[in-house]
TrEMBL record:
It holds the Pfam family LacI. The keyword Amino-acid biosynthesis does not apply. The keyword Signal does not apply. It comes from Hymenobacter persicinus. Gene3D superfamilies: 3.40.50.2300, lambda repressor-like DNA-binding domains (1.10.260.40). Residues 4-58 form the HTH lacI-type domain. Keywords: DNA-binding, Transcription, Transcription regulation. This is LacI family transcriptional regulator. InterPro entries: HTH_LacI (IPR000843), LacI/GalR-like_sensor (IPR046335), Lambda_DNA-bd_dom_sf (IPR010982), Peripla_BP_I (IPR028082). It comes from the Bacteria.
């Protein structure tokens, strides 16, 4: 099949090539109906921009760098899918780096991305990153940066995140409404933005329902491979022990489920369990696990759009802000009501 060009689309729709080109780039100069016609026709013919040809028109590489903690993490793999879909349609290719939760690797990844002449960076911070001076310095040199998921208030950049506060509030309130009162919270390093927002949502739900916040019910993980079991043991040794667990990540949710089952704890009769995750096997677990779903692909879409708009310096590019994408609470068997006690 011959490669479809902008000229082919222009000829078929009786438009100028410049109009088609601007419509494909999402230019504000083109009215929405024309954009829609061009995009639908381009998709129907499987048109794809040629990044190499585009890069020859100027000094831009038509590449964006994506830096994430771990590609194998289901959330990040789905976010990358969303980023790639937008980048591909707008004539960019992506270069993906992973930090493995290391600050030092994050710095090296950024240096690698710059050496490959990327036009901009999409970054989700490592669990070790509390100082973002390296990003401020890069930004001062003119590199467009958009943060997503794990972000920092210390960097003046657009940030695209899930509504972590609302998601955690909804999860905790659901447990309370199911009759739970001793709700443990397993979370990740305290300096991460997502940790702080989810902890705040958890505390707000407790406060709304008149349940005192007990810091003894909160445990912070470090992404270690065998840390969940000891945290569960510590919590189960409390008097009274928890009657529910709300975890702030998919890794913690899966580890908590396994630890409770190994200790012969019945879920949800003895303890309810809910995660904050995009884990694609949650409904296949035994019991199927309730969860707060992060809109990973949508976060990727929005982050990529905002970065490319920033790269192309559009006159009407949106100002720096924080974009919060709604989460969704999915209720399954792991958070059933408290079992009734026989007299």
């Amino acid at each position: 099949m011959d490669t479809v060009t902008i000229k082919d689309i222009a000829r078929a729709l009786n438009l100028s090539t410049s109009t088609v080109s601007r419509a494909l780039r999402g230019s504000y100069e083109i009215n929405p109906e024309t954009k829609r016609l061009v995009m639908e026709y381009a998709e129907r013919l499987n048109y794809r921009p040629n990044p190499i040809a585009l890069s020859l028109k100027g000094s831009a590489s038509r590449a964006i760098g994506i830096i994430v903690p771990q590609i194998a993490n289901y959330f990040f793999s789905q976010a990358i899918n969303g980023i790639e879909a937008i980048a591909y349609n707008r004539g960019y290719h992506v270069i993906i780096f992973q930090t493995h939760e290391s600050y030092d690797r994050e710095v090296l990844n950024i240096q690698q991305a710059v050496s490959r002449r990327v036009d901009g960076l999409l970054i989700s911070l490592s669990s070790e990153t509390s100082d973002v001076t390296h990003l401020k310095e890069l930004q001062a040199q003119g590199m467009p940066i958009v943060l997503f998921d794990r972000v920092s208030a210390d960097l003046e950049a657009t940030q695209v995140v899930a509504d972590n506060f609302k998601g955690a509030f909804d999860a905790t309130e659901h447990l309370i409404q199911a009759g739970r009162r001793r709700i443990a919270h397993l979370t990740i390093p305290p300096w991460l933005s997502i940790t702080q927002e989810r902890l705040a949502g958890y505390r707000a739900a407790l406060e709304k329902h008149g349940i005192p916040y007990d810091e003894n019910l909160v445990r912070y993980g470090t992404f270690g491979p065998d840390e969940v079991g000891p945290m569960v043991d510590e919590l189960m040794a409390l008097t009274p022990r928890p009657d529910a667990f709300f975890t702030a990540s998919d890794r913690l949710a899966a580890g908590c489920l396994a630890a409770l089952q190994q200790r012969k704890v019945a879920i949800p009769d003895d303890i309810a369990l809910i995660g904050f995750t995009n884990m694609n096997v949650a409904e296949l677990l035994s019991p199927p696990m309730s969860t707060v779903v992060q809109p990973a692909q949508q976060i990727g879409h929005v982050a990529a759009e905002r970065l490319i708009d920033l790269i192309e310096r559009k006159h009407r590019a949106l100002p720096i802000d924080t974009v919060r994408i709604p989460t969704e609470l999915i209720i399954r068997e792991s958070t059933g009501p408290v079992a009734s006690k026989a007299e």
